[in-house]
User: What shape does this take?
Amino acid sequence: MGKQTWKERVPAFASVLGLLVLIAAYYIVGAVRDANVAYGLKAIVNQSVVVALVATGAVFIYTLGSFDISLGAATGVSALLGAMAYNATGSLAVMFLVCVGVAVALGFINSSLASIFNLPIFVTTVAMMSVLSAFMLILIGWNGAGDTIKVKGRDMRPLDNIPFKVVILVLYIALCWFVFTLLPTGREAKFIGGNPVCARLSGINEKKLGIIASLISAVGIGLGAFLTIIYAPTLTKDTASSIGMDVIIAIVFGGMPVSGGPRSRILSAVVGAFSMGFMTQIMSMLNLGSGYGQMIKAAIFLLVVFIALGSQRGKLLTR
Amino acid sequence: MEQEARKALDVIHADHIQPGIPTALLDLQERKLVEVAKVMVKKPEILVVDENTTALSQKGRELLYQLMDSLKKEGKAVIFISHDLDEIKQVCDTLTVLRDGRIITHFSKENYDDDAIKTSMIGREMQGDYYRADKEPTWQEKVLLQADHLTGSGLQDVSLKIRAGEILGVGGLSECGMHTLGKALFGGAMLTGGTVKTEGKAYSDPRQATRLGVGYVSKERDTESLCQQASIRDNIAIGGLRHIQKKKLILKRRETAYVQKQVDALSIKCRHMEQPVSAMSGGNKQKVVFGKWLGAGSRVLILDCPTRGVDIGVKQSMYQLITKMKNEGKAILIISEEMAELIGMCDRLLVMKDGALQKEFLRGQMNEADIIRCMI
Assistant: This one.
């Protein structure tokens, strides 16, 4: 039996190649403009790491062909409660545990409701998003100073460094890769996303997979919430509000179909998140106004997706 | 709009289909007829019918044949694509044989010859038996699958047993409930009563059935038995992840060896195992489905229309495979709308009508006329 040709393999790596091109472009533009490349890199990591964490976990949910619209609100609530826990105890460990614990509890509620009422996870996350957004307002009203909840920035400074954030991200990606690639979970999730009826008739437990996916995703949300507090110790009702959309863009940019299924990959999320970070920074170095910058970003986004989905185009529906 | 839809359905004599109801509520045959009606609205000069009859019962087929005939009489052309030799001989004036994407030869109606057509289709003379060679029913004592009083989803108190080394056939008209029975025996149908057991252990859903060694090949291969976007590797391995795992981990090398074994054993034609199954022929797709269950070590196989939409060469290899599985002591249930297949392959044949079992025929005593009488 033969092997895949290079032509067949390219779509799978298009997003990684895209990221490499963006990194090269970043250094070239940096050199031409005489910009502070090291500082810019720090900004890229700070901007991208939270999205990468949340998106990496969300890959499990998207793989199932499902959709979590409450990612931003869940990150926000976890961060607010984590910050409140820190203010009450002064312990970073407690803050970490509260961030992750709250996110896992929310993920468990989401998936359990979906399982009990036999609903798609997406439906329960829509309800959860409204509840959590309201809950954020209530929390800020109870404990905040004005419209914010603050922790002392100097207490967070020891952890607000790139190596710490990168280590957290790498460890979480390693965990997700292990579960997705080396355990049956990933294969079964891809099958459910590809054809839920066939998956059921192949003996796959859809509900169990839904709960596992939500819990793994929740750990990413918790870690994202923790790093959000460290980077921006003043939290508002809008904290992490854009994460839901950023995650979708990152996943698509990373070459994974939002519809999930067999072409889902863990690395898509991190590749997509960092590609977005590099693009933003390049636009900033080129002093492109937000209008031009957005248009160029959109064009590059379409190009990457066009190449990544190359193998899917032109196919007719099956008989 | 509804009136126009009514007219379109009347043109193809599908007057039993209500134009106002959602297509999701129609069965596959009716959906196919709606598809035909939709095409006919455009008054085509050339109509391409690509293997549509595999989804149709005899009545549906007759409707389509009538339509093709009337187009022919109006001086229009029909390109009819099919694997079914009898059907081709019945409806086509000329035949072009394709193999591996190339035109092999042409036949005109007066030159139709079964052997010559089969040889050109598979590229060699057919060797060995097409169906089973033995004429007597045989099986072992041990009951591998037992269903008692299955009721619901159109089934009416259906009970049956399949023994090790037995091929049990279930036949009937398309809507007799036999396809639901297949699903029910796999734990995949909503029942109001009854039990299914394999080797004495009861199960009620596909997950339990799979773990107990029961496999199910659905009639709807493309939508229920395969994940089309997934690779051959993924589709075969998914049934046997338990066998591939070592210390709970799935290692790619073990998985590759597992899939390669099935690809070789079933002679699946493919460029490589990462190839999506959507790019494969019907016969090779079906082999992938078989590979999924055989690799998983299924001792009971429920095969619903196992040779639907596959060419005559693959059909023969499927029959040989089913016979081999019988000889290995597996229990096999074949549900089919093809009488010749049931008579040629089964030790026992159960005829269904209106969701209930009507009569049992033993191998050697199966007579087509008697069976049809029982069905209608």
Observations:
- Chain B is about 40% helix and 20% strand.
- The mean pLDDT of chain B is 90.
- Chain B has two domains: 2-92, 143-375.
